[in-house]
Design goal:
The chain has two domains: about 5-155, VC0802-like (2-Layer Sandwich), CATH 3.30.2130.30; about 180-215 and about 245-375, Vaccinia Virus protein VP39 (Rossmann fold, 3-Layer(aba) Sandwich). It is about 30% helix and about 25% strand. It is built from ten helices and 15 strands. The strands form two sheets. The chain has an eight-stranded mixed beta sheet with strand order 2-3-1-4-8-7-5-6. It has a seven-stranded mixed beta sheet with strand order 11-10-9-12-13-15-14, with helices on one face. Helix 3 (about 70-80) packs across helix 4. It starts with a strand and ends in a 7-residue tail after the last strand. Bound molecules: S-adenosylmethionine. S-adenosylmethionine (SAM) binds near residues 174, 202, 290 and 311.
Length: about 375
């Protein structure tokens, strides 16, 4: 039997449970929820599987070393002893990041520099050459988590954050993070049995993530680069075998509708949907939320209106009031999920939320609320 490895999948606060379930479904073992992360175990190829299939993970870290230390020298020696040459070439590049809680080092930067010196000194001793530092795009990104006198050394197998799916060719000033959008779709319970509508779709992120889920398109399907591709031990054959496990469904009868008041933003959605090759499933048209209505009922609405942070709105309270009116007037027998960081403005929707989640869209703490819209929908 192959050796079991330890990994950590990072995510946003509020998505840990979804990520744990997702990892378990992929075959991960001993999944443990941590703060904005899930620890898990599996054979080495589980790391490839998590990178390619996890919708709710931001990055996958491989735990390669864990040790206790009392002083700088013990810390340096333990890092020096890690055989980094198995992963990194002496002509290659590296970067070291650290997180630290209650440790002996004055700053995380000092610990990172000491670790970088230890790794490079090992190369110099062995080969008389050493890798160079590239903070932007290293061949190997080391990450060290230090908790008091215990240090854990990880290699970041994802490289760029996994929210960068590879379908975004056009960036919206207030686009929602793809990992959050995927989580919103999952939390909504939309099961592709009814139409899905994003009445303020911007660049189309929520629609694309919803279509990907319904059609079983892996999160990494459009992406062609991962951190571990540059490692010396990268196994192209195993990567191909794992990505071939994807079972994409192309005959699911789904229709998703996206509206936006802005022609420019709608153009962005069109470009992204086309890049994702989802134009057969996602219909986009210019329309204000106030004038929009569903083609079929019931329908599921999932959207993030402007919060008044990155997109200015003249009177945010009135604006949310109009959203509530449009929901009551045009979307009877539908369900709406709305995410917003503007807690005060949300109150103006004037409907009773039947479910409430707290999620983070990047650094912004948001409420994600469910409204059941039936005839004579209950005002608050
Ligand atoms: C926060 S952005 C949505 C971003 C989108 N989820 C994405 O990932 O790109 C809000 C969008 O609502 C649109 N919008 C503002 N007022 C609207 C209205 N009355 N009807 C429809 N869309 C509106 C804006 O043009 C903007 O694209």
């Amino acid at each position: 039997m192959n050796k079991k490895e330890k990994f950590v999948a990072k995510t946003f606060a509020g998505l840990e449970t979804l990520l744990k379930e997702e990892l378990e479904n992929l075959g991960a073992e001993n999944c443990q929820i941590c703060n904005r992360a899930v620890g898990f175990e599996g054979e080495y190829d589980m790391m490839y599987r998590a990178n390619y299939f996890c919708r709710y993970a931001l990055r996958i870290l491989w735990q390669v070393h864990q040790f206790n230390f009392r002083d700088n020298k013990q810390f340096y020696d333990a890092i020096f002893n890690y055989p980094a040459e198995q992963i990194l070439d002496y002509n290659g590049t590296l970067a070291v990041s650290t997180t630290m809680h209650d440790a002996i080092f004055k700053t995380p930067l000092f610990a990172a520099q000491l670790a970088k010196d230890a790794i490079c000194d090992r190369f110099r001793d062995k080969y008389n050459k050493r890798p160079s530092v590239d903070k932007e795009n290293p061949d190997v990104q080391f990450h060290i988590h230090i908790l008091r006198s215990q240090a854990t050394l990880f290699l970041d197998s994802s490289g760029e954050s996994l929210h960068k799916r590879g379908y975004r060719v056009s960036a919206h000033p207030a686009q929602i993070n793809e990992v959050i959008a995927a989580g919103m779709v999952k939390l909504s319970g939309w099961n592709a049995q009814c139409d899905m509508i994003d009445p303020m779709c911007g660049s189309g992120t929520i629609l694309i993530e919803a279509a990907m889920q319904a059609l079983n398109i892996p999160a990494g399907f459009y992406r062609d680069n991962y951190g571990c591709f540059k490692w010396k031990n990268f196994d192209r054959y195993t990567w191909k075998k794992i990505t071939d496990e994807a079972d994409i469904l192309d005959d699911v009868p789904i229709t998703l509708y996206g509206f936006d008041i802005s022609a420019r933003f709608l153009g962005m959605a069109k470009a992204n949907v086309k890049e994702a090759r989802l134009s057969d499933f996602i219909r986009l048209s210019r329309c204000s939320m106030q004038d929009s209505e569903p083609k079929n009922r019931p329908a599921m609405l999932i959207f993030n209106p402007p919060y008044g942070e990155r997109m200015e709105i003249d009177n945010i309270e009135d604006f949310y009031h109009e959203i509530g009116d449009a929901l009551k007037k045009h979307y009877t027998n539908c369900t709406a999920f709305i995410i917003s960081s503007n807690i005060e403005a949300i109150k103006n929707i004037g409907l009773h939320a039947s479910k409430k989640y707290t999620l983070f869209n990047g650094a912004l703490e948001c409420k994600y609320l469910k409204f059941d819209l039936y005839q004579g929908s209950k005002s608050k």
